[in-house]
Amino acid sequence: MNERLGGLLDFIALTDRLKHVQRAARSEGRLENSAEHAWHVALIAVLLEGEVTPRPDMGRVLSMIALHDVVEIEAGDTFAFDEAGLLTQAAREERAAEAIFGRLAPDLAEKFQALWREFEAQETADARFAMGCDRLQGFAQQVHCGAPAWAEVGLTRARSLKRMQPAIDLGGPFAEMIEALYERAMAEGLLRP
Q: 41-68, pLDDT tens digit by residue?
């Protein structure tokens, strides 16, 4: 086998470790992992593609979604409301991106790092759509599992809105679905007023 394909096999093996990175959300009584999260975000993107205008470039969107949490293999998952973890998250993830994507052939390393950075920067419509799907998934997952992670930090609606506002600002299905989730969360006491 040529060196390039060998490198791809090595990368495939490395990224399989994303299944072992646990998140704060629960699913069926156990913690969700980052690979499950990425799959669910991708499914949400596929479901919402036809609900937004202009339509996103799904090749780019799904590539960003597949890559956006790969850095967690090295950096770990940072819970959205872990104030101390959030202070170092960007630096940890940047180092992880260099290390993980740097294992690929230079052209792929550059391409994947660019997609990862595009998602993080949120400067394009495709990146914002991918982010909206990511935020919607995490929020919905917490609501559906009874939000034990929110309870641990005493999360308020106002504090959660700081994270969710960029997704709400996308309008359309994002605003409507997130508002429905807020109504349920408040009615069930999952968020403090």
A: 999 999 999 999 999 999 999 999 999 9
Pairwise CA distance, residues 120 & 143, whole Å: 25
Pair of tokens at residue 114: 């660019």
Judged on CB neighbours under 10 Å (0-12, 13-18, 19+), 26 is middle
49 contacts 41 by C-beta, under 8 angstroms: no
Report the distance separating Cα 144 and Cα 54, nearest Å.
Answer: 30
Within 8 A by CB and 6+ apart from 92, the residues are 74, 75, 76, 78
Cα angle for residues 28, 39, 25 (degrees, 5° grid): 40
HSE-up (13 A, CA, CB side) for residue 170: 32
The CATH code of domain 3-187 reads: 1.10.3210.10
CB atoms within 10 A of CB 145: 19
Query: Rounded to an integer, what distance in angstroms lies between the CA atom of residue 175 and that of residue 64?
Result: 22
* Helix-helix angle 34-48:125-144, to 10 degrees: 120
Cβ atoms within 10 Å of 135's Cβ, excluding its own: 22
Query: What are the CA-CA distances from residue 39 to residues 36, 43, 110, 151 (Å)?
Result: 5, 6, 23, 26
Q: Where are the domains of the chain?
A: 3-187
pLDDT at 114 (0 to 100): 98
CB 140 within 8 A of CB 168: no
